[in-house]
Amino acid sequence: MIRVENLHKHFGGFRAVDGASLEIATGSITGLIGPNGAGKSTLFNVIAGVLKPTSGRVTMAGEDITGLAPHELFHKGLLRTFQIAHEFSSMTVRENLMMVPAGQSGETLWNAFFNRRKIRDEEQALLRKADEVLDFLTISHLRDERAGNLSGGQKKLLELGRTMMVDAKIVFLDEVGAGVNRTLLNTIGDAIVRLNRERGYTFCVIEHDMDFIGRLCDPVIVMAEGKVLAEGPAAHIMENEAVIEAYLGTGLKNKVKAGGAA
């Protein structure tokens, strides 16, 4: 679905993404791992239109989407979440979901005055959709809670729910497990797997929790110093000497060797 070809993103003399090339297959849950500063989030930001690339090309289903703005990619079904959730804190969880779909009738002054029934019918449909999403994510008990009062994990579930309010084709999840307890992380993982299997969502996931990556993702892509270092099943990646050196650290590499010798 997504092809990245020789992508560069430079900030002055710093090459955050330095010639990265990769593919995200339709229907996959692809993991993206690497040490801090490897260029993972910058790569996400370039693909999702938050940043313009210095050079290189991004295509989606064969269409060149390089440099398109986030709202243009939104309409094509490409969505991106962030490490820190971006909720409307003073609105309820349900209202946050209902805000997502673009082009709502109530956004125009004409409809507000002369087409109130259309607005009312549309809002009822959005209300039903929001409740369906909350039920799917098992957080229907929070529907009337202000989003700002949610825990970190609940906010991540809400962000995932927002992707369900539109016809998402591919969702980029940036450190979905950051600040999330194990129970909620398992709930988020279950929701991702269900969306992938039951609704055909394609995911690309940045995450440092290797248990989470190993459970959900195939393949796993490793970045280091702005480049793609390795790609393959999680089990093979964990045994890759270059990955252990660059991502997990030499200390763990020696520990793994010592354990094997024992």
From TrEMBL:
Q: Which SUPFAM superfamilies match?
A: P-loop containing nucleoside triphosphate hydrolases
Q: Which domain of life is it from?
A: Bacteria
Reply yes or no: does the keyword Transport apply.
yes
What is this protein called in UniProt? ABC transporter ATP-binding protein
Q: Does the keyword Transport apply?
A: yes
- InterPro entries per the record? AAA+_ATPase, ABC_AA/LPS_Transport, ABC_transporter-like_ATP-bd, ABC_transporter-like_CS, BCA_ABC_TP_C, P-loop_NTPase
**Listed GO MF terms:** ATP binding; ATP hydrolysis activity
Keywords on record: ATP-binding, Nucleotide-binding, Transport
* Coiled-coil regions listed: none
Q: Where are the transmembrane segments?
A: none
Q: Which residues form the ABC transporter domain?
A: 2-250
Q: Name one GO cellular component term.
A: plasma membrane
> A Pfam family this protein belongs to?
BCA_ABC_TP_C
